[in-house]
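Weekly puzzle thread! Below is a chain. First person to post its structure in token form gets bragging rights.
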Amino acid sequence: MSQYPKHDFLLVLPHLQIQNANAVSSPLTHGFPSITAFLGLMWALERKVREQGLALSFKAIGVVCHDHQEQSIQSGFVGSFCLTRNPIDKDGSTAAIVEEGRIHLEISLVLAVDCPRWLSDPDERKQNADQIAQILTNMRIAGGTLLPPNRLSAKRHQAYVVDLSGNEEERGRQFSQTRMRLLPGYALVARDDLLTSRLAALQTTQPDATRLDAWLSLSRINWHYAETELPSEGTVTAKAPKSEWQHDRKDLGWIVPIPVGYGALGETHPPGSVANARDSDTPFCFVESLYSVGEWLSPHRLNTPQELLWYADSQPDNGLYRCRNDYRLAHDSLNLQYDFD
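Winning reply:
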């Protein structure tokens, strides 16, 4: 596993209004753009920022969702996307409908920034933050269009920089103020640990259960009828125990299935050797989506930037290209520290 990237600053781009973002995050999931889309945005933004002469690098990104409206309709248990009719073909025939999921979002992006110059020049931080926010207005975010803020809420949408270069106490205070400014909203964090615990629970009754079974089990609400044991003969009870339907979502939180990257289906091909590839200067590899479990948490429940931010973990030798978030690692380390104290 790759290490959490070192950085001294957080750049917060608050309350971005995005129209028609891609709601289909993978072949199996929908409802919010994939975290890979935001990592791709981070790298694309870094390239454009450097073209403007800003010597900085983005190490990780966090996403806080304040509002969402998926463009879909629900009819009973069946839902469908609201689709648009394409223009007719050249011969006048009706074009086929390409099913696309769209969603309107209000999100805040939190970027981990490494820029030594910002340590000695706070004024440059503010100037660069405004410049980066301006560059972002000309980009797509998860396939969606960034809408300009209205005049009344312009201050609410201003980018700002959080200095984390101080000692541990100062970093904690700065992040505490930042997370409160991100309310109300929900941050997406990784919960890979739930797959392991659910698989162990399933294998107690289904020895042949796999991690796919555990993932599917966490992706739905599982109801079961709990029959209470009858009292033994000779036992006097004031009231007979009650049997009832129960589900497995108690104390789990807002758990969702998410794609977390890609796994290689074969070897990497040399640049330009695969026909119709998007980039002829980059090695090419056929991949499929990797899946895990995430949780939506209110930002005030996060204690460190490590719990919020996602970063890339590329392992070409193992054929793994995935996104990492250390929420559980940071959470466990904090619990150990508190228990020790």
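Puzzle host: Confirmed. Bonus trivia for everyone else. DSSP finds seven helices and 15 strands in the chain.
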